[in-house]
User: Fold this.
Amino acid sequence: MTNPDAPLMSGAGAQSDVATSADARLTPGSHTAAVNGNRLHYEVRGSGPVLLFPSPGWGPSIAYLMPQPALEAHCTVVYFDTRHSGESSGPEDPTQYTLAHFVADIEGLRQHLGGQRVFLAGHSAGGQQVLAYAIEHSADLLGVIAIDAIAAPDELRRKELVAAIERRRTHPFYASRPGFLDAGLAIVTGADSTPRSTTEVLDAIGPFYFHDPELAADVMPTLDVDETVNGYANASGFQGDDVLADLHRITVPTLVVVGDDDFICDPVSQAARIHLRIAGSTLAVIEDSGHVPWAEQPARFHAAVDAWLAASTTALA
Assistant:
């Protein structure tokens, strides 16, 4: 974390954007922006229309999201660490990490970068952020990409989550580790409420996030989780909002991407219902993939996103 009292600068070679032009603020590389009293760190890659891509909000930095070749081939992608995550600062107040705060930060960064209409992309809880933003700000958007997004943490989601874990029971990875699956299931369902750090939880359930559980050892360490903001987000009830009822208010082109074996933001309770409620949206189900499709099935993920962005950016010309 950066020092809240330090100059507006973060990261090796990061540029302070306080007194720079909008064009300079979108030059490739690392930058910081003053947004809603915080310093948000962001990384610019690619070229084309601007696309904002927040980290999930509950602690991981943008490190695990980059690179995204399909996005960067069509857009100037602005990956940004949400408040108190990665290299961004944030208030030491657990009430300041609600979904509304994250939506306000997206708007603040959009204004900082010139106030033009932008694309949004978000993964998991970042997907919920961009959906919530689009509900209120469709007029400011070119389109939305919701990747394995959470929209409704309800009973159907819990049912699908448990079913997805149970389907893993015959997988050789779990069969060779007696007790591993049941221990993880108890943590996920709350049957085991033993206090644990985020790292300990991810060690226990990380393989569940993948169709190929062996990938957890490579991907999970890239999350770079801030434990403090994880506690703040939980205290604020972040990820507890149900946005399904308002998704019909999204009026821009929307791509809903989901791994067919995602246990945490599954195709049935999340992606299918998001797709159903956003008129004209496109649903792309990535086969043989869990929660992180660009890492598990990069070619299939790239093809789906590339095709949608190619059509969407061409329509802007």
Remarks:
- Strands lie at 15-16, 29-35, 38-46, 50-54, 76-80, 118-123, 141-147, 254-259, 282-286.
